[in-house]
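FAQ: What does the model actually see?

It sees only this:
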Amino acid sequence: MATGVIWTVGRDSRFLADLTAQDRDLRTLVLTVLLGALAALVAALLGVGAACLAFMIVISGLDGVPAATALLAIFDQPALAQTSAQASLFLSAVLAGGNGAAALAFVAVAAGLTHRTWRRYGVVETPFRSRLLIAGLLLIGGLMAALFFVSAAFSSAMSTAPILTLASSSVGRATYAIVTVVLLVIAAAAEEILFRGWLLKHSAAFTRNPVVLMSLNGLLFAAIHFDPSLEAFVLRAAMGAGLTWMTLRTGGIELAIGAHAAHNIVVMLLVQPMSLPGDAVPITQAVQAFQAQSLVFAAVVGLSYVALAEAVVRWPVMTRWIDRRGDPAPV
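And it is asked to produce this:
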């Protein structure tokens, strides 16, 4: 990648074209964080409640108290998610409902205080490009699935894919896959509009250095997950940095949503079902358990996101398919 592109993408990205001096006002920023966090908390509680109710109605009906009780038991017995497709999907619904409501509430507050429409935290100069999202889903999903099958072929320690163990029929597996895709796209969109939308836009009001933006976004994205695993932290930091580059390079969060969702979808279908966070571990134990090859894997993931963004903006066939009105890249 040409050095000139690296240093001009932050300056010229059309995703940042609507930034003004007001976005550097620290009082507005602090007020946004405080009010936005409060609104997000309330919205998250409502979103989780709505997701729980909707899932229970679909699964058990309004009178299905025993089934509803069984679903709620997962919060006391997290291991249930490892053995039940229903429990795994229930957690995914809770994640999508809570994250989606919280992100929209926070962004709504931010948009009101900065006098911009909330959609400008997703795209600025174009309508939402659904084909860009689909490209992220298919290309990153295909790459990760291929890596999984290659690893499975050379490792006897690989476990059987959850989509095969949690559902016993083809209809059940298809349902599990479809619901997983829908819920995880919603959850990914919520995280993207918050991190690659609001956070990226307002941090870029203070610096357009893409390396700083990618580093800051990646570290905060990893930290907010509160995962006790150091390997998971490094992987998420690399993902966050790569997704930031995608957003800057393509001028919107559509590709990042697809890539982010694809990663989670492949993990949930082929590696492990949705689960609750584990117990916190001492930092010394986390460091001791860290494996050096995790750095290599994280680097591959981050670079694959960067490579996908470059393919989208440089490959004419891809560019024409995604945005028939012209090149989706700012530079």
